[in-house]
């Protein structure tokens, strides 16, 4: 049975009795736990860095952000053009206007998909081009219906 004396525990077993300092052991365990936490944090940050999408080295983040904002604006404008308040005018649309509206809706869907998958300025520019193409289809439909065209 171990004997206790002023922070020192004496253990008896095969061989000689030797003192075990509990304060030193607790301090060492604290360092081990701290080291383990640092290793876990380092591994987690390495995983996050590995999974982040790789950007082209020549493009700056600011230009990508600007391109994203511009592309979002064009896609939103196209979507707003598709949901017009004068639905009675669109209801009597002819073949040309109907086809142009269908093409515009397809451009809106494609631009939205490209916008959600884009990470670089070039990819955002492609989404902008598709949205502008959809706005051109809206202008064609408005012209076929005799409605004032909205400037693109």
Question: What does this molecule look like?
Answer:
This protein is mainly alpha-helical and 152 residues long. The chain has two domains: 3-51; 61-145, no CATH class. Helices cover 69% and strands 7% of the residues. The protein contains five helices and three strands, in the order E-E-E-H-H-H-H-H. It has helices spanning 22-51, 61-82, 87-91, 95-117, 121-145; strands at 3-5, 8-11, 18-21. The chain has a three-stranded antiparallel sheet with strand order 1-2-3. Strand 1 and strand 2 (8-11) form a beta hairpin. The longest helix is centred in the first third of the chain and has 30 residues, at 22-51. The chain is rod-shaped, with a radius of gyration of 34 Å. The model has no long low-confidence stretch (mean pLDDT 78).
Summary of the model, kept short:
With 152 residues, the protein is mostly helical. The protein has helices at residues 22-51, 61-82, 87-91, 95-117, 121-145, and strands at residues 3-5, 8-11, 18-21.
């Amino acid at each position: 049975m171990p004997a206790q004396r002023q922070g020192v525990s004496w253990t008896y077993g095969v061989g000689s009795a030797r003192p075990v300092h509990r304060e030193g052991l607790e301090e060492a365990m604290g360092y081990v736990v701290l080291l383990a936490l640092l290793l876990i944090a380092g591994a987690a940050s390495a995983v996050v860095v590995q999974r982040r999408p790789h950007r082209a080295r020549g493009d700056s983040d600011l230009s990508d952000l600007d391109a994203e904002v511009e592309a979002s604006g064009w896609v939103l404008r196209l979507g707003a053009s598709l949901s017009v308040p004068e639905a009675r005018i669109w209801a009597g649309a002819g073949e040309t206007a109907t086809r142009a509206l269908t093409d515009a809706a397809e451009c809106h869907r494609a631009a939205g998909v490209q916008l959600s998958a884009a990470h670089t300025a070039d990819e955002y520019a492609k989404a902008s081009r598709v949205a502008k193409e959809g706005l051109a289809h809206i202008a064609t439909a408005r012209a076929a219906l005799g409605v004032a065209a909205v400037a693109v």
